[in-house]
Design goal:
Helix content: over 70%
Strand content: under 5%
Structural class: mainly alpha
Mean pLDDT: 89
Low-confidence stretches: none
Radius of gyration: 20 Å
Number of strands: 3
Number of helices: 10
Largest sheet: 3 strands, antiparallel
Length: 230
């Protein structure tokens, strides 16, 4: 392997790890990402770390602070509303085309992803289940066989994965994906499109419930801390 390739590979590795840490909730919104600390953690120089942070900035996951650090971005209700609007246009098309155009191998790949999501949901493994849920949507886009659509969806992949991770009812999401899979299998484009629209709306409600639960837990923690100080 040539030396010229190493910085690219290292920055990609660091970016992949940090992306997963952010999207899995390990690095929470508002957390600082300091170059020297990350370099020590990964055992690399600060150059690939700096390049990795630029990649994540381009994906909208962090905000760079020049010559200081980066901050994990906190997605606002407005951000998610914007995402839902775009999803409501692109994803129903993706599911319709996937139903109309899928082949046997592609359908088998989609089934494997769905089974992984189901098994991890039953095992109460939220990180694996949520990752598989995002993989399900990516696999559907591949089945649609539309390069422009794939490019558009790729540009919002990280934000989409973050949005799909904001739910607590793993089984409910899996059940909706099962119904979508069945519509694709039957080559029922109308049903796949309608279910995709309903799935986006359901995801919005799940996300709002997740946010309320987090706020409730945070408020309870503040009250508990205040009571302990009395």
């Amino acid at each position: 392997m040539s030396t010229a390739e190493e910085p690219i590979l290292e920055s990609t590795r660091v970016a992949d790890w940090l992306r997963d840490a952010i999207l899995d909730g390990v690095r929470s919104p508002g957390s600082r990402l300091i170059e020297r600390d990350l370099a020590a953690e990964f055992g690399v120089s600060r150059v690939p770390v700096r390049d990795a942070l630029k990649i994540l900035e381009g994906e909208g996951l962090i905000v760079l602070r020049p010559r200081t650090w980066a901050i994990v971005r906190e997605f606002t209700a407005s951000d998610m509303a914007d995402l839902d609007e775009v999803r409501s246009v692109l994803e129903p098309l993706a599911f319709r085309l996937a139903a109309e155009r899928h082949d046997r191998d592609g359908l088998a790949r989609l089934r494997r992803v769905l089974e992984k999501e189901k098994s991890s949901a039953r095992a109460e493994d939220p990180i694996t289940s949520r990752r598989a849920a995002a993989d399900f949507h990516e696999a559907v886009t591949e089945l649609a066989e539309n390069r422009l659509l794939q490019d558009l969806m790729r540009s919002m992949r990280s934000k989409l994965r973050w949005g799909l991770s904001q739910h607590d009812d793993l089984i409910h999401v899996t059940d909706e994906h099962e119904a979508l899979y069945e519509a694709i299998t039957m080559r029922d484009g109308d049903r796949a499109e309608a279910l995709a629209i309903a799935h986006i709306d359901s995801g919005r409600r799940e996300r709002e419930a997740h946010e309320l639960a987090l706020r409730g837990a945070s408020d309870a923690g503040v009250k508990s801390e205040g009571a302990s100080r009395r």
